[in-house]
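note to self: dont lose this again. the chain is below, predicted strucutre after it. 171 aa total, dont forget to put it in the shared folder this time
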Amino acid sequence: MVACALAFSASAPAKAQSLTITATGTIVGGCGITVGSNFGPANFSAGGNVTGTATVNCNAGFKINATSANGAIKTSTVAPANFTNAVPYSLTMTVPLDVGGNVSATCTSAQLVAGQSGCALSPGNSAGLSSGGKTANNKTATLTASWSLPAPLLIAGSYSDTITVSIASVP
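---
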């Protein structure tokens, strides 16, 4: 928003006139995040990890939270005794800042379930993963999901989880 005020001054006839222009404006803080690349395919026959990216654009300080739909990578197949249908994981998110390095946090998938607040990325953590008031303009953030094989055997099925990442500017 830009406001301009014009003031004209006129007195007795003279050869010179003056004009004063005052310009003021406000740039509202804002943030956006878009998917750069999704996680690649996961091999659950061994421990491992997959990495995805997101582009972060914030012209003000910001915070990030993440929510896991399932609290683990799961299949809908019911697991009989000695089997499991869930692979718990850890999610690490690292965001480069315009000045001052990176901000990063690692949380377990159980900490990313709605209502949880025990980790910087947890959806119930009001501070979130904080940029500490710093900006990130067109920066590529990395998200890495890492897992170990659970003690019980995995039941056959298609495994998935949905992770929702939210970003907001903070004053």
